[in-house]
Amino acid sequence: MIGGDVRARTHVFVIITTRAIAYWVNAGRPALTRRSSAMSFLRVGSILGTFLTAVVVSVAVLVSTGPIAGVASAAGCTLTPTGGTVTRMIGTRSYTLNVPQGLTGSAVGLLISLHGAGDTSAGIERETGWSSYAAAHDFIVAYPQGTEFDKTWHFEQGSVDVTFLKQVVTDIESTWCVDTHRVYADGWSDGAIMSQRMACDAADLFAAVTSWEGTDPTDPNPLEPSAVGTPCTPSRPIAVGIFQGAFDPISSLGVGLANVREWIRRDRCPATADPTSDRYGTHTNYQPCAAGTNVAWRVEYNTTHQWPTGAIGQDLRDQLWNFLDSRTLP
Questions:
Q1: Around Cβ 33, how many Cβ atoms within 10 Å?
Q2: What is the pTM of this model?
Q3: Band of pLDDT at residue 226, cut at 50, 70 and 90
Q4: Which end of the chain, N or C, is surrounded by fewer C-beta atoms within 10 Å?
Q5: What are the CA-CA distances from residue 275 to residues 196, 260, 296, 298 (Å)?
Q6: Of 210, 179, 200, nearest to 324 (Cα)?
Q7: Is the Cβ–Cβ distance between 144 and 114 less than 8 Å?
């Protein structure tokens, strides 16, 4: 997360750090003991969030071999480029949109990319490099803006942001020729939690989602008065990719593994899988899961809680998009 206010950064740190503590302390304990201990840590997390804020202010699907024939979202739609990135409004909320020049076919895929806490739609576009990548790979990309107050996402079940992101997709589909079988979400940090929430609440709209350095969307959101986690009950099995940096001190490997296990349970996947490795990281693919879906866990080498640049950044974009683009909505 680059820029943004201290309160928003603190809330993400608390969410993910309390998840990591709970995971490591609870390893191997009986179920009832784990549940009691986790609730204690989550209460501590809420208190810790208030404390850290004060201190810092005083001195953060179906699996297919490739895309199917496009199904256009609206009669009379267009693939006319936006001529760069433009801002669009839905009531008082905004998102930015980039429709590249030279898109081909009757309809193309759509990626909704979600920024981290304290960041902006312009920031996530710059950091991820998705707009130039979309031009090279023939899809549309949008960058919704989190709440104006704290630039974060409300990732609770049925939240205002779940509604907003559905509206963003509808707004784009009303003008541009989006393949309704190829609508995807990805996010970074707080945005990664929100992208997973869309898998929970809008599996009828999104073909697949990816998460870069987040945690499970059932964790409590310290900015909410109740600070209680809400359920994740997808309407169908949905492909989910959990991606992490090997040296991330916030969304640690323990947090990632716990997150992966939750999706393995939801999608009814095999409990184990053999990892493979390459120049830039390790990849573990849990399949076959229910309805032909899968859950992937990718760990990028030499990366902390940031969006990487250079060759690792290019590998991350390739890995994320290849995972998403090979999935289509049933």
A1: 11
A2: 0.81
A3: low
A4: C
A5: 22, 13, 10, 9
A6: 210
A7: yes
